[in-house]
């Protein structure tokens, strides 16, 4: 393992029926870095996040976080220091902005809170410590009414809220699946600042976005996936200049063996 590797996946494989979504993927996220994950539709980016976060079981390979095996249900992985956001935000619509952020904090300290009835959850959250801090965290990222229901937010605000909730976990590694899609300029700036905060803390970020330029501007390293395989890995500059990048996005050949 390279020095400073926080998250490490080796030989990751995942099939959905007859579809090979991931095929022998090796990936590593180092302390204090943003790893950009790019590739065309269907390349396997979200599936990689799914198997890392525990939303899907992997069929082959191993995962470690800070040297410890990463396995089990998503809430177990959250307690080990993994946080993620989703391509389609998964918030508790009946809970407020501040309460949703608190669920992130609780996920890192206790067992899963997802799926609980909102009323039970609200009772639990009303006694949870850190309520004001969570409201402040949301306000700092532009969500300045902590009492609004998450269900009433715009898509862009929901994305910001998911990132704030992930940040509230103080994760070792944060997985962000297209966090900028639908966010306005304020939201994009807030999410970028959250990414920089995680990096400053010496933690790691995995970032998926369809905007290769945006990923390149934030990431120290980029992994290019195509048909479930890593076809290039390097700095953004190296990746953008590679023949693999041209082949994947503009057609043409590269050695796929
Ligand atoms: N739940 C699922 N059931 C069956 N097939 C799936 C499922 N999720 C993903 N796939 C398939 O696995 C492959 C990888 O999909 P994945 O969503 O991981 O790619 P992606 O790179 O995230 O694509 P996009 O950029 O479009 O989100 C695709 O062929 C997709 O159709």
UniProtKB/TrEMBL annotation:
It comes from the Bacteria. Residues 7-252 form the ABC transporter domain. Gene3D superfamilies: P-loop containing nucleotide triphosphate hydrolases (3.40.50.300). SMART domains: AAA. It holds the Pfam family ABC_tran. GO terms for molecular function: ATP binding. InterPro entries: AAA+_ATPase, ABC_AA/LPS_Transport, ABC_transporter-like_ATP-bd, P-loop_NTPase. Signal peptide: none annotated. Keywords: ATP-binding, Nucleotide-binding, Transport. SUPFAM superfamilies: P-loop containing nucleoside triphosphate hydrolases. This is ABC transporter ATP-binding protein. It comes from Actinomadura yumaensis. The lineage of its organism: Bacteria, Bacillati, Actinomycetota, Actinomycetes, Streptosporangiales.
